[in-house]
Amino acid sequence: MSGHAETARHLVVVDCESSGLRDKDFAVEVAWRNLSTGEHGYFVPVHSVDWVLKYGQPEALAINGYQDRLITAKQDHDQMGVAYLDEVLKGNVLAGSNPRADAGWLEKAFEVDPGGGPWHHRLLDLSAYAAGVLGLDPRNLPGLARVCELLGVDPEPEVHTAQAGVDTATACFLALLVKAGVQL
Q1: Considering the chain, what is the average pLDDT of its residues?
Q2: Which among 16, 40, 47, 178 would be 20 to 30 A from 31, CA to CA?
């Protein structure tokens, strides 16, 4: 033991909406909330709208309402949103309803190699955490909608936005932390 008290990491809930689910796809919207401080943010990463419309997966674009919401959204051309989130995540825990996918989208936005994000190497997956806190069978992890149902949290709206995803996951994490007796 080093004799130094370990500083508690912050939990940062992130949600990314993307152009699809393939390796060539990327985040088209990012929202986040630091559960430890309450600080939050939102940005639209720089991307080619023409590419998304031509090559993006139609199902993904319908789910996130790309044509209605993001086609004319102000993109983060000055990279301030990306840079700030990079700082917020440094050494902290990236959390979400699908943090492995969000980590992949963020690695592309941060332009780092896979596994090279600034966050702690352990990710906090809502489904796995809910299974542990609620005593569910870990072989049958619940999705976000089921976690919401079990906790009495309003589910994510039909059109998925990064902000709605963060808000829903945040409400679930906060309810689970209370049940687990964890104070941030």
Answers
A1: 94
A2: 178
